[in-house]
Amino acid sequence: MHKMNRLLLFFFLTLTFLYCKPTSKVNISTTLENTKWKLSEMNGIPIITPENTEDVHFVLTAEKGEYKIQGFAGCNRIMGGYERTGDHIKFMLASTMMMCQGEQMEIEDFFTRALTATDSYKLDGEILTLFERDTSLAVFKAIKIE
Fold it and tell me: Which phi-psi region, left, alpha or beta, contains residue 50 (left: φ > 0; alpha: ψ -120 to 50)?
């Protein structure tokens, strides 16, 4: 019987060790505000940022009743405000007015049109999808703010 008690004690200590073992993975919940949202897909097409260029992204902040958006659209900086009620959202944008070549401007034009057309969103973990009615306009991935 004494041997059985030791075996049970060993079993419980092993289980305790396994469940209490520290992990290097930290699960942080993602929120709509104060998260950098990188454009990852538009019209079902993955977006790959070329080397040595900035990601197309935006960050929303809500402080003291002021709802602001700022980010980078591929060529120009964007800024402005937004209104949000539940999962409904409306962006009001302004931007700098630099001209860029080819694909950068195409992505920027799509990005700014998608933001201004958005009327709702879905946040699923680290993935944010913007919608116009029931149509998905763009998909974003949460990126650590540096």
Answer: beta
In whole angstroms, what is the distance from residue 18 CA to residue 45 CA?
Answer: 42
User: pLDDT tens digits, residue range 14-47?
Assistant: 333 333 333 333 334 689 999 999 999 998 889 9
Q: Which amino acid is at 120?
A: S
Ranges in the chain, pLDDT < 70: 1-29, 146
Give the C-alpha distances (Å, rounded to integers) separating 23 from 18, 19, 125.
10, 10, 20
User: Which whole-number Å values give the CA distances from 115 to 15, 25, 69, in the listed order?
Assistant: 50, 33, 11
* One-letter amino acid for residue 101 of the chain: Q
Q: What is the CATH number of domain 30-143?
A: 2.40.128.270
Question: Which sequence spans correspond to the domains of the chain?
Answer: 30-143
Distance CA 87, CA 6 (A): 56
